[in-house]
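As practice, study what follows.
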Amino acid sequence: MRIVIFLILILSSFLGKSQGLRVDGGANIIIQNGANLIISGNGNWTNNGTANCITGSWVRFTGNAAQVIQGSSTTAFSNVEVNNSGVSVQVGRDISVLTTLTMNQGDFDLKDYVVDFSTTGSLVNETSARRIKSTDGGGVDGFGTGTITATRNNPSGNVAGLGLNITPSAALGNTVLVRGHERQAGSGTFAGNWSIYRYYEIQPTTYSNTDFVFSYFPAWELGVHTDGTLVAYQRVQYYWGGWGGPIYWEPLTSVNASPNASSTTVYNALSANVRVTLGSDDTPLPVQLISFTGSCLENFNLIEWKTSSEFNNSHFILEKSFNGSDFFAIANVHGAGNSNQIQSYTFEDFSEKENINYYRLTQVDFDGNSNISNIVAVNCENDYDIKIYTNNFQDIVVDFINAPSNNYALSVFDATGKLVLLTNINIENSYEKIILPTSNLASGVYFVKTISDNTINSEKISIMKN
């Protein structure tokens, strides 16, 4: 016969100093509204059964050594108080806190677990002396993957007290806000760099550009960075030439006034999950070179590249090779110096051409440091191409590269197959770029076709309106 134990707590304290609370399988503990369960000493919360924390109840950790919330069963707490004079209260499994997580003394270590505030929970009374953090198994800050999540409808302000104050330009709809403390790795040539020990992720129903103020604790969360030099970064991906570009950290125009940094999010392919963090100019996160391409035209090779950001960038050296190993310089192109905007560069190579030509790019800083790009091959044996893509998910762009001179019918179909745009284009030159405005088209997936007497080309694209 199964025995179910009902324990109703209406007193302030009843636990042994070092045992804590243990609810084994088959047992059910009920903490009534207004009741206080105090876990002292080095006692833990261990739930292997069922724990019902009625709204208005409190579980208070008042230990003098590390205390752990653990067990095979999750717990939905109403109110949790951290008042630990020892190391911290640590999370040993996923839990929920549906009213308040109150910080009075000691840290709350998420480790590798999720604390869900759902639609009603909030963080109260956090300071640098009693803070949320995530450590690894050795207790090292910034290496735990744990997060706090909160769900709100059309959020604004300091959502759930998590330290990110947001002002969306339009309603975000039902939104999940995530706060994490795992340091974020840089990308591309900056893969060895790291952010501070905090990041936020906004997961909206409908994206809108959002002003935000990002709070941090200078004494504990900076890592290798220096306070006062911080820059906000957003994880982004753009599309170039119809293909998905790299995912990288884009620096945002921001203001750092310790202990806050303020900026505005930008729209991109990852806007369903807007992740922001803080780094600095001297230890940047983003990759500078996000595209490097070449095309063989009738009289010259067109070399193009784009950078997401530039720091201390003096110039680029463009090199060429006929065999892919022996390179020689053919151009020196000035860089933008310092920039947090996308920069575009082109070079027309009229020098001698082989059937296949190889190019690489060296970026040189003002202090003489340099980075060499990957090698791109430009094939002049089979140089006919029609590229269909979008300009940052807005207008439709069609590049005709050595396409046969002809009249082309350009048609656009929506996801249901309905024709929504049709135009005729007369191509006479070896390279022509056609831009089709999409002001009358809604956000969505479209199929673009170009048809001539002897060629048919098609491409699937996405249009996203701000």
